[in-house]
Amino acid sequence: MPANNSKQPLDTDVISASKALEGGNAVLVDVRSPGEYAGGHAVGAISMPLDHVTTRAAELPKDRPVYVICQSGGRSQQAATALRSMGYENVTNVTGGTSAWKAAGLPTQRESATEAEMDCCFIVSAIKKLFRK
Questions:
Q1: Cβ of 36: how many Cβ atoms within 10 Å?
Q2: How many CA atoms lie within 13 Å of 36's alpha carbon, on the beta-carbon side?
Q3: 26-55 per-position pLDDT tens digit
Q4: What is the pLDDT of residues 56-106, one digit of tens each?
Q5: Residue 117, pLDDT above cutoff 60
Q6: Helix/strand/coil (H, E, C) string of 57-85?
Q7: CA distance 126 to 120
Q8: If exposure means fewest CB atoms within 10 Å of the residue's CB, which of 9, 38, 71, 115 is most exposed?
Q9: 29 DSSP assignment
């Protein structure tokens, strides 16, 4: 896929993204929460929650295509736009997200959340309960 010269990321469907990833040159970044990612994600996707994209962008190659996916396409569009503004020229938003990926029968996998992620989720849950009282 040619580099995009505008500041807006390209959009593609899940089938086209899957085909682009087959060669191993492109990178797929899942910007959903760690819990969503652990619950099922595209095989080979890197977990990078939306609120970490700007601080962790340096982990992504600028010389390879980067595809960004979330649950339905909204958060991935935000992340792709942020990456474009940071100088990533070949960024593509995967429209329809993981929902469309699964619906198309493309390969997914589940992973258990790390201990740190579980601790974080427990703490957030406990704080929310405190404020509901």
A1: 17
A2: 18
A3: 999 999 999 999 999 999 999 999 999 999
A4: 999 999 999 999 999 999 999 999 999 999 999 999 999 999 999 999 999
A5: no
A6: HHHCCCCCCEEEECCCCHHHHHHHHHHHH
A7: 10
A8: 115
A9: E
Strands 41-42 and 27-30, by their bridges, are unpaired
Q: What is d(CA 78, CA 61) in angstroms, rounded to the nearest whole number? A: 18
Distances (CA, A) of 129 to 106, 125, 126: 38, 6, 5
| Residue located via tokens 């940071």 | 86
Known catalytic residue: 121? no
Place of tokens 């959340």: 113
Q: How far is CA 42 from the centre of its chain?
A: 10
Catalytically annotated residue among 57, 69, 70, 100: 70
